[in-house]
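Example protein as discussed:

>
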Amino acid sequence: QVQLVESGGGLVQAGGSLRLSCAASGRTFSDYTMGWFRQAPGREREFVAAITRSGISTYLASSVKGRFTISRDNAKATVYLQMASLKPEDTAVYYCAADRSPFSSSGYKFAGRYDYWGQGTQVTVSS
C-alpha cells in the first residue's frame, strides 16, 4: 500500500508558476510509475503527466507540453509537477497517482491503471 499526499496548490495569476509536490509513504517508491491527473468542475479526470520508475522517461498531455514538467526524487519518495505559463483553463484539482504494474506505453494515460491516489490539491488560475 502507498499513501500519497499532494501539496503546493493555490491561487495564481495567468502566466504565473506553481510547483506541486506529492510525497509517498509505505512501499518502495521507485517500484511505481507515477502520474498526475486533474479534474475541473463538471469534467472528467484527465491525464496531465507521467514518469517512469527510474525517472528517465516522462510523458505530458499535449495541452501542457512545453509548460509543465514532471520529475521525481526517489530518495525523497516525492514526485513533482512544475507548472509554468499557467492559463485559466488549467484550473482544477490536481491528483497524483501510483501504478504498481510494469510501465505501459499505451496505458499510462488512463486513470484506471493507477492503484493509489492522493486526496488532490486545488489549483486556481485567475485571468
The longest strand covers residues 18-26. The chain has a mean pLDDT of 96. The radius of gyration is 13 Å. The chain has no helices and eleven strands.
